[in-house]
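Below is a filled-in request sheet from our internal design queue. Each sheet records the structural input a requester submitted and the sequence that came back. We keep these sheets so that new team members can see what a complete request looks like end to end.

REQUESTER: design group, bay 2
PRIORITY: normal
MODE: inverse folding
CHAIN LENGTH: 340
BACKBONE (tokenized):
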């Protein structure tokens, strides 16, 4: 076949193939096949070297025309395909603007915070101020000044997370008692709500939980005041007819100490699974401030007396809402949390 005929048939073939190309990537492949370094058109340029001067002229012209034609056609087709691909993409993404919108979901307080606010509200209405202390606490505040010396067996009661030899994650809010007594002059009454940490995890324990501490110090503060305040709290929170009882107990920082029970709110005292058939539910630890604690913070134990109490907030939240696994409170399942 004559070279010119060959070029013409390459041109024809190119046009046929171009028609069949349906994507920009297919188009790139076509460009490589014809115009790439080793492409069909590019290879013909190499024949120029062997052609006579006469042939060179007409061959060069024909080759150039073929190349320009192919380049132009590819560019034109590319623009078409791009438009088409864009149209398809827009169509696929098209929005139905008549659909109703998704409203933003309202956030709300975590159930534990809701309970914390309720408890705090009851005590502030009885004239208690609110104090705070650090969650990373020194051994002195968390134990020593609360009459729990090093190696005292009472330290076994609390599974402590140690940060270092003398620094712990506070195991209770009682260290805020010490901070409050250093900061405030009697008479005063405060509560201290906050997070506490213990190395413990099961259906009724999480490594972090919340407590509300209470402390009232003044002249002539008696166990009667303690009973009155706690009974008022329990009756305001759970209802006026709930029975309350104080059982002797032990805490190194209070003397005497008591555990406070209320009548089971589920079975009304007749005995059920929640109260383990006793009819009573324990909700507080409390007692009169141990004079030894006063000595650590330079409060005169001859002149002042006081009472302290501490309660677990998750426990009260569980009783309030009938939750039987404390861990649900911290799994952050929106379906669970949005019920409160
Ligand atoms: N700190 C005690 C606890 O965590 C509770 C408590 C506080 C007891 C104040 C008496 C007085 O178990």
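RETURNED SEQUENCE:
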């Amino acid at each position: 076949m004559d070279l010119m005929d060959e070029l013409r048939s390459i041109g024809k073939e190119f046009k046929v193939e171009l028609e069949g190309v349906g994507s920009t990537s297919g188009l790139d492949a076509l460009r490589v096949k014809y115009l790439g370094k080793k492409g069909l058109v590019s290879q013909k340029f190499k024949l120029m070297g062997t052609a006579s001067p006469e042939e060179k002229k007409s061959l060069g012209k024909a080759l150039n025309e073929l190349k320009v034609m192919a380049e132009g056609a590819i560019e034109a087709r590319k623009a078409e395909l791009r438009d088409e691909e864009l149209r398809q993409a827009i169509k696929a993404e098209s929005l139905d603007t008549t659909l109703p919108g998704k409203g933003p979901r309202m956030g709300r307080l975590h159930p534990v915070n809701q309970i914390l606010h309720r408890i705090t509200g009851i005590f502030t209405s009885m004239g208690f101020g609110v104090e705070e202390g650090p969650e990373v606490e020194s051994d002195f505040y968390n134990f020593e000044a609360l009459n729990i010396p090093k190696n005292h067996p009472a330290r076994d009661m609390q599974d402590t997370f140690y940060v270092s030899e003398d620094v712990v994650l506070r195991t209770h809010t009682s260290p805020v008692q010490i901070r409050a007594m250093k900061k405030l002059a009697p008479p005063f009454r405060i509560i201290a709500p906050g997070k506490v940490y213990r190395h413990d995890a099961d259906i009724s324990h999480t490594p972090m939980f919340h407590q509300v501490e209470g402390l009232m110090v003044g002249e002539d503060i008696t166990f009667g005041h303690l009973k009155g305040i706690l009974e008022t709290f329990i009756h305001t929170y759970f209802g006026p007819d709930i029975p309350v009882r104080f059982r002797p107990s032990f805490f190194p920082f209070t003397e005497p100490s008591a555990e406070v029970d209320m009548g089971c709110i589920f079975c009304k005292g007749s005995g059920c699974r929640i109260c383990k058939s006793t009819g009573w539910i324990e909700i507080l630890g409390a007692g009169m401030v141990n004079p030894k604690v006063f000595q650590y913070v330079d409060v005169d134990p001859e002149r002042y007396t006081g009472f302290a109490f501490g309660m677990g907030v998750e426990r009260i939240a569980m009783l309030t809402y009938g939750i039987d696994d404390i861990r649900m409170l911290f799994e952050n399942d929106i379906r669970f949390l949005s019920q409160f």
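SHEET NOTES:
- Residues 172, 174, 213, 251, 254, 285-287, 308-310 surround phenylalanine (CB under 6 Å).
- The chain has two domains: 3-93, 111-337.
FILED BY: M.R.
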